[in-house]
Write a structure and sequence with these properties.
The structure is a single chain. By secondary structure, this protein is α/β, with parallel strands linked by helices. It contains 26 helices and 25 strands. The strands form five sheets. Strands 5, 14, 16, 17, 18, 19, 20, 23, 24 and 25 form a ten-stranded mixed sheet that branches. An eight-stranded parallel β-barrel has the order 6-7-8-9-10-11-12-13, surrounded by seven helices. The protein has a three-stranded antiparallel sheet with strand order 2-3-4. Strand 8 (160-163), helix 8 (169-181) and strand 9 form a beta-alpha-beta unit. Helix 17 runs parallel beside helix 19. The radius of gyration is 31 Å and the shape is globular. The protein starts with a strand and ends in a 7-residue tail after the last helix. Bound molecules: pyridoxal-5'-phosphate (PLP). Pyridoxal-5'-phosphate (PLP) binds next to helix 13. Pyridoxal-5'-phosphate binds next to helix 13.
């Protein structure tokens, strides 16, 4: 039996913000960075202290006043800062407790989020916290060198810069020259030929470089990036090649330059045991190479520190079964135990925990544009009229069968011959009227069977369109009634667990999944999604989310839940009104998508030409007010068209000529033509998302 989260409200009466906090699991995945305030709004607590909160609804309203509309990505610099210190603290404490003397640095792989504002903040913090940066490609190397130069200060030359990924001659020459410049830069050899290039350029420039080796461990990874480790992994040297590297460096008098060994077991390691095995193996390799005379002083265990996206704290792809503190303690313990045993000095530990560093700091807020839903009210008056029409023969019943146009030869149900209401429709009506708390399952079985019969009879041509419509409406209404009653009882029998999904509405939201949450589409990554306001009202609907791309994949139909991901999200009914033109409008309804800081921004694509969203950097002031530090406007239509080589001037010229011709031929008035051209020009300069 699944516990339905609305239970507490039914037991205790009035729905409160805290009921919503429980329903959406805010404390579980928010880890103290997110809470629900007494106004019923979501609030960010950048330093995990309830006394210092940023009200998200207030921020969105404030941004709207400044002309910055949703979708908008909010980046919280203070969360980023807090998170880095949290990781620093976890390792400092673990090293202190265990008497580990090697030290620790976390290096930030900029591929996780290369946005300049994020990286600049990171580079400044790295200098202060003895952290570093990682580059995985030539453009990233150049970015990292520039970032470290700009961060400046006396610490910048001590900041470790790790270079992973494939490297060519030019890449390595740049690294060697950067070493000469004074940078603490460590190229990690992924394939043997890179080592030859390093030695070549080191000799040419008379530099003693720091060299790293990536080792192919036998320990395998786990989860979505399982293939990053193990002997079949794409990167790294087999242990036999590592030994060859030692010989090669010795022969060139450079064995003291072999300073670091590295592994990467995969991103989002959800099971701590996988990490322990890999660290153990790497520590043994470290000690052996150290004893062979390598000048090793750093042990880099790569990325993998995961994020508890669904708040379940479990060994599950969207979660992790450990905390940062446990991760730190385990790494320190394993390395210390192996090194102490081998009587090798403790190395400086390095982790490349990009995801864990930045995931928490970004939140996307989107507005709901409208809802498509199954009617839960069957409209009995309409159904009764349709039945009467059916009996009276007003309805053109069973058209296909009467015409005999290829419908299989099956004997027609007597009820229909006599112009009677089809039995499945009567059964559904009975089911609808007869629901009680005690017969929910039985009613569900009856209704499902009747619905299936009605649909097959329609396909065979024996049921009219109005009778099919009646069957559909009754079935949805029965389902809704069952769900409401089960919800009130507080338990949803397993067999009915698919009902919320089956009956769920589609909330259309102003964003592109492919641009803003690509991992949701590509690898079914879950991200917490919660309305940022109205949380002191009970959500009465269940919905999935559709984006504004014209792709049927552009939807979110899995949501975080502690137990198992849920197939529909609890949402509020839109508050609607009809304007003077008879058009239904609704009050703004905003949803926040959390933990988007890692990978999403850079992996996002231009599907349907929906570009980057606006991004704003927000900080908390001492007086508790929020401050807008930076506004990075999202792509305009002109910009995204430019990315795909359109010439905007040519397009405008062509449109103008077309409109001119239409005016000449009186298909458009001059005023209409002027308006059309104005919309066209304004549209090109405007946001790629809907602006209402
Ligand atoms: N280091 C290397 C070599 C990687 O390939 C990756 C990601 O794939 C990372 C670090 C970042 O890992 P994570 O996503 O766990 O932060």
């Amino acid at each position: 039996m699944a516990t339905i989260s609305t239970r507490s409200a039914f037991l205790h009466g009035q729905w409160t913000s805290q009921d919503s906090a429980g329903l959406y699991g805010v404390a579980d995945w928010g880890k103290g960075f997110v809470s629900v305030n007494s106004e019923g709004h979501l609030a960010i607590q950048p330093t995990k202290t309830p006394a210092a909160q940023i009200d998200l609804y207030e921020v969105i309203s404030g941004l709207a006043e400044r002309g910055i509309h949703t979708p908008v990505l909010l980046r919280f610099n203070d969360i980023l800062d807090y998170r880095l210190r949290e990781i620093r603290r976890a390792f400092d404490e673990a090293m202190g407790e265990q008497g580990y003397s090697g030290g620790y640095s976390c290096v930030y792989p900029i591929k996780v989020n290369q946005q300049r504002h994020v990286c600049e903040q990171m580079a400044r913090a790295c200098v202060e916290l003895d952290f570093g940066l990682e580059a995985g490609s030539k453009p990233e190397l150049l970015a990292v060198l520039g970032l470290s130069a700009a961060a400046g200060g006396p610490g910048v030359n001590g900041m470790p810069i790790i270079c992973n990924g494939f490297k060519d001659d030019e890449f390595i020459e740049t690294v060697i020259l950067a070493t000469k410049l004074g940078r603490n830069i460590i190229p990690v050899v992924e394939k043997f030929s890179e080592l030859e290039l390093i030695v070549k350029h080191a000799k040419a420039y008379n530099v003693r470089p720091k060299i790293g080796l990536r080792v192919k461990l036998s320990a395998r990874g786990a989860g979505r990036w399982e293939g990053s480790a193990g002997v079949r992994s794409k990167f790294g040297l087999f242990v036999s090649e590592c030994l060859k590297a030692v010989e090669f460096l010795k022969a060139h008098g450079m064995l003291d330059c072999l300073n670091l060994i590295h592994c990467h077991v995969g991103s989002q390691l959800y099971d701590i045991r996988v990490l322990k095995n890999a660290v153990n193996e790497l520590a043994h390799v470290y000690c052996e190479l150290h004893k062979m005379g390598a000048g090793l002083s750093m042990l880099d265990i790569g990325g993998g520190m995961g994020v508890d996206y669904d708040g379940s704290q479990s060994a599950w792809p969207s979660s992790i079964n450990y905390t940062v503190a446990e991760y730190a303690r385990d790494v320190v313990y394993r390395v210390k135990a192996v090194c102490d045993d081998a009587e090798v000095p403790h190395p400086k530990l390095i982790t490349e925990s990009g995801r864990a560093m930045v995931a928490y700091s970004s939140v996307l807020v989107v507005d709901v544009l409208g809802v498509s839903r199954f009617e839960s009210d069957p409209d009995l008056a309409w159904i009764e009229q349709a039945m009467k029409d059916e009996v009276a023969g007003v309805t053109p019943a069973a058209i296909k069968a009467r015409k005999g146009n290829g419908t299989p030869e099956v004997s027609r149900p007597a009820s229909s011959e006599k112009g009677e209401v089809p039995q499945p429709v009567l059964d559904l009506l009975d089911a609808y009227k007869g629901i009680t708390d005690r017969n929910l399952m039985e009613t569900y079985h009856d209704a499902t069977q009747a619905r299936d019969e009605a649909m097959s009879l329609f396909s065979l041509g024996y049921i009219s369109l109005p009778m099919r419509a009646a069957a559909e409406r009754l079935f949805w209404a029965v389902g809704q009634r069952i769900l409401d009653r089960a919800t009130k009882k507080g338990d949803l029998p397993e067999e009915l667990e698919s009902l919320p999904e089956l009956l769920s509405d589609i909330y259309f939201c102003n964003f592109s999944l492919f641009q803003s949450m690509p991992d949701s589409w590509a690898i079914d990554q879950l991200f917490p999604i919660v309305p940022i306001h109205r949380l002191n009202e009970q959500p009465t609907r269940h919905g999935i989310l559709g984006d504004i791309t014209c792709d049927s994949d552009g939807k979110i139909d899995h949501f975080v839940d502690k137990r198992i991901d849920k197939k529909a999200l609890e949402l509020h009914d839109l508050i609607t009104k009809v304007d003077e033109h008879g058009v239904t409008t609704h009050e703004p309804y905003y949803l926040g998508v959390f933990l988007l800081g890692a990978y999403q921004e850079i992996l996002g694509d231009l599907h349907n030409l929906l570009g980057d969203t606006h991004a704003v950097h927000i900080s908390l002031e001492e007086n508790g007010e929020w401050r807008l530090d930076e506004v990075i406007e999202g792509d305009t239509v002109e910009e995204v068209l430019g990315y795909v080589q359109y010439d905007i001037d040519d397009m405008k010229r062509a449109m103008r000529q077309d409109v001119e011709a239409a005016c000449k031929q009186s298909r458009l008035t001059v005023t209409e033509g002027k308006s059309l051209l104005k919309y066209y020009d304004d549209g090109l300069e405007g946001y790629t998302y809907l602006e209402g």
